[in-house]
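Query form — protein Exodeoxyribonuclease 7 small subunit

QUESTION: What is the three-dimensional structure of this chain?
INPUT:
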Amino acid sequence: MSPPAPATPPSDYESALAELEQLISRIESGQLPLEQLLAGYERGAELLAYCRGKLEAVEHQIKVLDEGRLRPWTQE
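ANSWER: The structure tokens for Exodeoxyribonuclease 7 small subunit are given below.
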């Protein structure tokens, strides 16, 4: 049995989130064979780590822009 092809990295946060949502729907359906379920779980973990990393990077940028002071967000 050959090893699975490496998954392509997401192009951006929105596409990663969309893929993750679709993946969760397929997993929750209960209709996937065990091998696909495991592969889906692994891909989901990769996508989740990618999304978390992007969110942490944005949070860091906001802290830098606000000179380290977190301010409550208000819609103007």
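ADDITIONAL NOTE: The chain is about 65% helix and 0% strand.
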